[in-house]
Amino acid sequence: MRNGEGGEPVAEDPKRARIAKRLKKSKRKRFLRILFIMIVSGTILGVGGYWLSGTVQPVDLTIRNIKIRGNVTIDDQTVKDQAATAIGQNILTVNLNELAADIKDSLHVRSVAIVRAFPNTLVVDVKEMPILCAVNNGSQIYYVNNRRKVVMTSPYLSNTNVPLLSGLTLKGRYRSGETLSFAPWRRQDEAFAILKTLEAGGMLTKVSEVAYTSDNTYRIITKSNLNIEVVSVGNLQKHMDYIQTLFSQKQSNMNVDLTTGPYPIVKNR
């Protein structure tokens, strides 16, 4: 019941009363539903957190491994030795730029890039300087670029993709970055010009050795055991088409003398 304008009691509308009752009941159900969801969610989070705390171990971010890629002449261990200062450091805080610069300067390579491989590995990507040939001084191998500068040294011939230059005498011992000097010095430029001509013609990877001989000629020995003898780089250039044909035909076990005139002297071996 409610009072009217004159204070007289007025009967409530049954329909409005039913609606009000339903709304009140609906609010109570919604409250109980929310309360139930909160209790269940809290229980799940509590149980899940307790389980995770007992099963998930903290991740070890200490650098323990170094992987090398991109290297051709330089062996993996040489690069790893230069990167060894990173071992034991935290992978998140190690200065990769500084480490890459140190490796680049030590190995005299074209570039070094280092990336993190979580949780505990560094990947070192090495781009080496172009190598024209290798020179053996009897106790050490020098890998040399087209300016006669030492790209790297090795106690053994580790890269058979570049030819060996022999027959010239090295003056002294050298370190990476230094320029080789040979005797007789007049012949060193000729020998390197021959190597660069073979490289420009796409044939250098098929050559195993270029040897300066006691007859003041240059013997080009291929991996298929084809011996081509020239007297100078000009002599080589005059016969480039013929030499290209020999390579394309995969000729082997032959001696080809180009020093005597316009026509080659060919002998089977």
Count the E strands: 16
Strand order of the largest sheet: 8-7-6-9-12-13-14-15-16
CATH top level of the largest domain?
Alpha Beta
CATH-defined topology of the largest domain: Rossmann fold
In sequence order, what are the helices and strands, one letter per element?
EEHEHHEEEEEEEEHEEEHHEE
N-end to C-end Cα span: 128 Å
Number of domains: 2
Large-scale geometry: elongated
Percentage of β-strand residues: 15-25%
In round numbers, the mean pLDDT is 88
CATH 2nd-level architecture of the largest domain:
3-Layer(aba) Sandwich
Q: What is the CA-atom radius of gyration, in angstroms?
A: 40 Å
Number of helices: 6
What summary fits the major beta sheet? Answer: 9 strands, mixed
| Helix vs. strand class | alpha/beta
Description:
By secondary structure, this protein is an alpha/beta fold. The chain has 2 domains: about 60-125, Ubiquitin-like (UB roll); about 135-269, 3-Layer(aba) Sandwich (Rossmann fold), CATH 3.40.50. It contains 6 helices and 16 strands. The chain has helices at about 15-55, 75-80, 95-105, 185-200, 235-240, 240-250, and strands at about 1-5, 10, 65-70, 110-115, 120-125, 135, 140-145, 150-155, 165, 170, 180-185, 205-210, 220, 225-230, 255, 265-269. It has a 9-stranded mixed beta sheet with strand order 8-7-6-9-12-13-14-15-16. The longest helix is centred in the N-terminal third of the chain and has 42 residues, at about 15-55. The radius of gyration is 40 Å and the shape is elongated. The model has no long low-confidence stretch (mean pLDDT about 90).
